[in-house]
Design goal:
The complex is a heterodimer of chains A (297) and B (262).
Chain A lengths: L10 H12 L6 H31 L4 H8 L2 H41 L6 H16 L2 H14 L9 H27 L2 H9 L4 H31 L11 H12 L3 H35 L2
Helix pairs in contact in A: 4-5, 4-7, 4-9, 4-10, 4-11, 5-7, 6-7, 7-9, 8-9, 9-11, 10-11
Chain B lengths: L2 H8 L8 E10 L2 E11 L4 E5 L6 H8 L7 E6 L2 E2 L7 H6 L1 E4 L11 H13 L3 H14 L15 H13 L5 E5 L7 H16 L4 E4 L3 H7 L2 E6 L2 E6 L1 H6 L4 H12 L4
Parallel strand pairs in B: 3-8, 3-9, 6-7, 7-8
Antiparallel strand pairs in B: 1-2, 1-4, 4-5, 9-10
Helix pairs in contact in B: 4-5, 4-6, 6-7
Classes of the chains: A mainly alpha (297), B alpha/beta (262).
Chain lengths: 297, 262
């Protein structure tokens, strides 16, 4: 069992696990604590040595002063960070709107693909083609094709706001992935659940709505969060069609000051936002696994 | 159990059988499981299906519940053909309850919600009404204190009793029980069988696939031995268990007795 960042949070956890499994009395606390202290200090010392060595190698590299100035210039960092954060709100807005649309569209696609029987073949076919096409084409190409292509047609009344096309493109691309996640969830629910629901006189749609989907969605929350971490990062791709978001803002500063430090500032912003989400996802996965093990006794 | 003899006069108005199966064939790919099953079940009758594993008991029940499409034959419930083309299967299934070997409770719903889901969604009962009816049924089966629990907090016997209550909540004309004690620890079997005995006393028409011969002898108005895809022999439990006519039935019962199950 691993704790924060995969560091051994130690035998305290495994002690709890042992107690759960054996149902016996807790083992000696003093022995466990000493073991925990020992393994934590070993991890600490080896980390300090490893990263210390790495730092020494980098800092003594022949071109380090130039690189340091180009990427880690504190004056430019201080100047660009507030601007990058300001622009980052566009990414956040894009992410939140697209996420809601993706969850809905992907669910629809997954349900269409799960419909049984020959009558629904055309719908299944369409949903399958959709998933194949939008997973096959790189997201950036979809963004560019939509963002330049559709306004480029010059049809009267067609909006030209690149933010709109950014939302549409990301929704199209990610719905294809997320619908596969949903579908895996739906297929993981044992057919006996549907049989039980249908045997009570519920229709196929009712069985899906009340029995299958609630269980399926619960099961796929961790992989869904994983996809959303990807989506969060991919929001910078829409800078290509002229949405002034954080990456675009960074590159504007970069060209004006001939310095790449704004990119490092942006990387930091992503780290701060994404790592908690990634940790949360891992925690959810671990929790589900524990629950599964507990139920499988 | 004299359900058949006594119940019949009370329900003389409906001369039609509760369930009529005629020439039912069913195969899965190359494997033909049912080869022309004929079975008639009168109202208030309790019919036990016995036979070795894989003889088609479960398949027969699943066909009656329309969970499996049939290849040939007819199934009538209360005189209405449920296998006719264009029939509303959802409406038909509401009249036929089934309880499965593996309970199949909905794990994400409380006991109460498991029981009230179908009455509310399939028959449009109001929530208050459905909950009142469900509570009454749960009380009858000794589950009143479990109404807000989730299935994984219940013992197997409790789960199976909830599954029975869930099927009964639709007030079915006919209840199908598919080896409902096979997945239970031995000490939990009795509580479930007692629930079925109680239902039999109440006059519920039931078709029961079972390996519990003692229970079948006890509760059944008729025992049917399913072999080779047909009902090879049937009769009152006393006759079937003590004087089976067919050699295959004798063999089967000898094996059961050798295993200490009768």
């Amino acid at each position: 069992m691993s704790g924060f960042f995969g560091l051994p949070s130690g035998p305290r956890d495994s002690g709890e696990l042992l107690r759960l499994e054996s149902g016996g009395p807790p083992r000696s606390h003093r022995r466990i604590d000493r073991a925990a202290v020992k393994s934590t200090s070993i991890a600490l010392v080896s980390s300090v040595v490893f990263f210390g060595l790495l730092a020494v190698v980098v800092v003594n590299a022949p071109n380090w002063p130039a690189v340091q100035n180009y990427f880690f210039n504190s004056e430019i960092f201080d100047y660009s960070l507030p601007k990058v954060i300001d622009a980052f709100w566009v990414n956040v807005r894009l992410f939140l709107i697209a996420e809601v649309l993706i969850l809905a569209l992907a669910l629809l696609l997954a349900v269409l693909r799960s419909l049984p029987g020959p009558v629904f073949f055309p719908l299944r076919l369409l949903a399958t083609i959709y998933a194949d096409v939008f997973r096959a084409i790189p997201g950036l190409l979809i963004i560019v094709l939509l963002g330049f292509g559709i306004p480029g047609l010059g049809i009267a009344g067609v909006p030209t706001d690149p933010f709109l096309y950014a939302v549409v493109a990301l929704t199209l691309v990610y719905s294809a992935y997320v619908s596969e996640v949903y579908r895996a969830g739906i297929e993981s629910i044992h057919p006996s659940q549907e049989a039980a629901a249908r045997s009570l006189g519920l229709s196929r749609i009712q069985a899906l709505r009340y029995v299958i989907l609630p269980q399926a969605v619960r099961r796929v929350i961790p992989p869904l969060l994983n996809d959303f971490i990807g989506l969060q990062k991919d929001t910078i791709l829409v800078s290509y069609i002229g949405v002034v978001e954080a990456f675009r803002e960074s590159s504007i500063i970069e060209s004006a000051r001939f310095n790449s430090t704004p990119y490092v500032a942006l990387a930091l912003v992503f780290l701060v936002i994404t790592i908690p989400l990634a940790r949360f996802t891992d925690w959810l996965v671990a929790r589900d696994r524990r629950r599964f093990l507990a139920n499988a006794r | 159990m004299s359900g058949l003899a006594e119940a019949r006069p009370e329900s003389s108005a409906s001369a039609r059988p509760a369930l009529e199966i005629a020439g039912l064939w069913k195969s899965f790919g190359q494997l033909t499981v049912l080869r022309g099953v004929d079975l008639t079940v009168a109202e208030h009758e309790v019919v036990c299906l016995i036979g070795s594993s894989g003889c088609g008991k479960s398949t027969l029940l699943r066909c009656v519940n329309l969970l499996e499409p049939i290849d040939a034959g007819r199934i009538l419930v209360e005189g209405e053909e449920i296998t006719a083309p264009g029939v509303d299967v959802n409406r038909m299934r509401r009249r036929i309850g089934i309880v499965f070997q593996s309970f199949n409770l909905f794990p994400h719903m409380s006991v109460l919600r498991n029981v009230t889901l179908a009455p509310q969604k399939a028959t449009g009962k109001s929530r208050a009404r459905a909950e009142a009816d469900a509570t009454e049924l749960l009380e009858r089966f000794g589950l009143a204190d479990k109404r807000n629990e989730y299935p994984d907090r219940l013992s197997g016997g409790q789960q199976q009793r909830v599954a029975i209550v869930r099927a009964l909540a639709m007030a079915p004309d006919l209840l199908l029980l598919d080896e409902i004690t096979s997945a239970l620890d031995p000490e939990l079997v009795a509580e479930v069988l007692n629930a079925i005995r109680e239902l039999a006393r109440g006059g519920m028409t039931m078709v029961i696939a079972t390996h519990e011969m003692g229970f079948a002898r006890d509760v059944a108005s008729r025992v049917c031995f399913l072999d080779g895809g047909v009902i090879l022999e049937q009769g009152a439990p006393a006759d079937m268990f003590s004087h089976p006519r067919e050699a295959r039935t004798q063999q089967f019962l000898e094996r059961i007795i050798a295993a200490g199950r009768l």
